[in-house]
Amino acid sequence: MRLAELWSEAWRNVISGASRSFLFGSGFTIVVGALVTVDVITARDLAQTSAEFRRAGAATVVLVAPGSISGSACDRLADIEGVAAAGAVQTSASRVLTLSAPDNPLEVHEATPGFAGVLGRPRTEGLMLDAHAAHTYGVNPGGALLTRQGTLRLSEVFDYPDDGRDPMLFDAAVATSRSRARFDQCWATIWPYDPSAWSAMATAVVPSATAGAPTSQSQLNGRLGERLTVAEAYADRPTRWAPLVAGIAGLITALMGAFRRRLELAHARHLGLTISEQSWQLVLEWAFTLPASVAVLACTVTALVAPPQAWLFELAARIVASGVVGAIAGAALGALVVRDRQLFGYFKGR
After folding, report:
1. Claim to verify: residue 240 and residue 207 sit in the same structural domain
2. Boundary (domain end) residue, out of 184, 199, 223
3. Are 94 and 115 in a shared domain?
4. Structural domain ending residue among the three candidates 223, 251, 266
């Protein structure tokens, strides 16, 4: 039988319902869809946990050495692999009286330019204000803050919520510059967790200045635990076998489809259809069926992943692709589960 004839026969079987494509296609979609849903939700939740960990300041490490932190050395920690940002800050603050709220003095902490990166802002020199304080004083980035000492130009606004982190910068301002050499604290955002990066922070301390002076190192916010190893959690997630399971499910579904039609397939072989021709016919039937299943699965993933994230789509695509390959392989092998010499046995046992 020529390929065009096989193509036509397969299409007729699909649209007539003889191939039971709706039944087995629906089964394939449900099983693979469940695997996609569970794995995507698991991975998405891990990503959200990771983002919350960093957003809460739990990935930020604070090295305390009063008057002994080298500002330039602390900023250079950002060049170390695994350190996203680093900067030094002074714990003591100057008080500024604003004209808009004279009864509420604004505390201004000196810091290095790299400290802006620790607060999630671009590296800058100038005045940065906590978002709560910016709302209180009614000023936005680029705006002017009128004080009794003069006008201060605001360069950035940073988020510093009261969520369990050190409250030093809540409702306060940070003035970044290169004018100061020594600081009280060095902050570094280390992600993912890396003990060697924690140890490297000690290089920001000026050795001659720490004689007899106590130092300490801790998280900015310990509310969410000391460490979060997302890479390990992702690699060990229970749903990591979803692509393999999807492939096996696709294979079994296609084989079941062929076995359910064993009487019809054995009869066709009895009439002269070869095993290879029958395999091609079954493959073509699944090729006509699978696009609808893939379209439904794509809509499912789109609904799960909001806003769109390419890595989650890639994760889902691997599961779907594995299921499709399994189904095609099962269809190709489907003709082997049928024996034409057992035609009458199939007929009696129907």
Report:
1. no
2. 223
3. yes
4. 223
Phi, psi of 325 (to 5 degrees): -60, -40
Residue 228 lies in a domain: no
Same domain, 65 and 203: yes
Domain region containing 125: 57-223
User: Cα 303 to the chain's mean position, in Å?
Assistant: 16
245 and 216 in one domain?
Answer: no
> What residues form DSSP beta bridges with 190?
83
- Say yes or no: 61 and 171 in one domain: yes
Number of folded domains that form the chain: 2
Mind listing the pLDDT tens digit of every residue in the chain (350 residues)?
566 766 677 677 777 777 778 888 899 999 999 999 999 999 999 888 888 999 889 999 999 999 999 999 999 999 999 999 999 999 988 888 777 777 788 899 999 999 999 999 988 889 999 999 998 888 888 888 888 888 888 999 999 998 889 999 999 999 998 888 899 999 999 988 888 999 999 999 988 755 556 789 999 998 887 777 777 888 888 999 999 999 999 999 988 887 777 656 665 565 566 767 767 877 888 888 899 999 999 998 888 887 778 889 999 999 999 999 999 999 888 777 765 554 444 444 55
Distance between CA 123 and CA 117 in Å, rounded? 6
Q: Tokens 């969410």 — which residue? A: 224
Q: Specify the amino acid at residue 48.
A: Q
Q: Look at residue 8 and give its three-state secondary structure.
A: helix
46 lies in the same domain as 62: no
Pair 11, 62 in one domain: no
CB 86 within 8 A of CB 75: yes
Is the CB of residue 210 less than 8 Å from the CB of residue 182?
A: no
Separation between Cα atoms, residue 105 and residue 159, nearest integer Å:
19
- Helix or strand or coil: residue 306? coil
Same structural domain, 80 and 33 = no
Whether this model's pTM surpasses 0.85: no
Which residue intervals of the chain are DSSP H helices? 3-16, 21-55, 71-76, 115-118, 131-137, 195-200, 230-235, 242-260, 262-270, 275-304, 310-334, 343-348
